Amino acid sequence: MNIKFHGAARTVTGSCHLLTLDNGLNVLLDCGMFQGMGVETDDLNEKFGFDPSSIDFLLLSHAHIDHTGLIPKLVKEGFKGKIVCTPATKDLTEILLYDSAEIQTYEIEYKNKKRSLRNLPPYEPLFTSEHVQLSLNLFETIDYDQLTELSEGLQLLFINTGHLIGSAGIYLKITEQGKENTLFYSGDIGRYRSVLLKPPAEFPQANHIIMESTYGDKHHDIKFNTIEKLHKWIKNICIENGGQLIIPAFSVGRTQEVLYALNQLSLEKRLPEIPYFVDSPLSSKATGVIKKYTDQFNDRLQQVLSIDDDPFDFPGLKYIDNVEDSKRLTESTLPCVIISASGTADAGRVRHHINSCISKENCGVLLVGYCSPNSLGGQLLIGTKEVEIFNDPCAVLCEVGQIKGMSAHADTDDLLKFISCQDPEQVKSIYLVHGEYSVQQAFAKRLQLKGYKNVEIPGQHQSYIIVSNLIAKRA
Question: Whole-structure pTM over 0.85, yes or no?
Answer without folding.
Answer: yes
